[in-house]
Model the fold of this input.
Amino acid sequence: MNHEAYEQEIEEIDFLELFFTVIRKWKSILLTAVVFAVLLGGFKGIAVLRTGSTATEEQLAQIEACRSNVESLQNSINSEQAYMGNSIWYRLNAGNTVSYKTAYYITIDNADLENWIGSNDAYADAILRSYQEIMTGNTLLTELAEQEGIDVSYIREIIAVATSENADDAGRFLTVTVYHDSAENAQRVMDELTGKMDTVTQQVTEAVGPHDIKVVEEGIGNLISPEQLNNQTLHNNSLTTLQTELQTRQAELEQLESQCKTENIGKAIAKFGIIGALLGIVLALVLIIVAFILSDKLNRAEELKRRYHATVLGRLETKKPNGLADRLIARLAGKDQKIDSETALDIIAGNLANYAANERKILITGLANREVMENVAGEMKKRLPEKQILCSGDVSTDINTLKILPYCDGIVLVEECGVSEHPAIEVEMDHIQNLKKKLIGCIVLE
Done:
């Protein structure tokens, strides 16, 4: 036998046998798929239980944006409701608003203009503007708000400071008005404001120049306030709009969350279970194919014919297909023998008698299980009593086989699929060839 020929044959891949090898491993493939499905599906299930969501990153981004909108709208609504609950100006009766008015008259002597470069009108205007700025400024209003126990923004709404130029060059009017829900409250705030006028007058004098200021009129009255009505309408409409928008955004958020929950943990597990099963199948196929390509083991009886030009005397089934699927695969692969073992042994004995008509002393050896080979040898002795049938172990490992091999007329190899390896078979073939012994044929255990 030529070793180079053996090596060349080994490099060839029997794709048909590869196909049936893969199919025969369907249980292993299925088991791997189930394991990976359980692992990946279980991992996803645990992840969902930990995070409480099956949403994708895009869905989570949409939910987060919607939640942010809902939170912003809720804050705006809270601000509006806080304003409505705390604002004195908002709570006033627009058709009967209580107001406390104090009118001041500011006079200017010529002596007051001694250091003034501009006109008398400009001087008087500077005095009025200074009063107006100070009395509506944060410092004074913050002090009033602390005394009233309310926010400065609410105190600012109920105090109005106006100037009037309906007078001669010697004087101007300054009108201070306090709006409140009762005469007592309006007077209280006005008294607090009046109590600070001396300080305000001193500030104006230092900033602009000397002048005289006195109260010319004060009193409580009731009025219809279109501005207050507009303010109420504006905030009422704003609150309604915000509440409507909030309901819309909340419904949108609930829908988004519902969509994520619809893809519940069961669907998430199923989805990743399927992915895991596919990965398991692919991995199992890759491992089976790689193992087949790298394996040197005998797969089919036809390999003995093709690679070593050996005669196959017959096949014996050592493992019967159990299930329907296994029997079908065996039938497709041509390994499902429809004959029983006795008939198969008869066929082998008949072939052996035909191919070894002139050989009397026959050695049965090979790489198959020793007990199985002895059983085969025993059966051949029963069926071929005229032949001297011997049985011994593997040529490459059994010294007794090497001793009796030269004295045999013919050799029968018993090889087992999935057990016998081609390098060892080659060694057997070499021994037979070197001793110029006849290889009668091979019996294949499948």
Notes: The radius of gyration is 54 Å. DSSP finds 18 helices and nine strands in the chain.
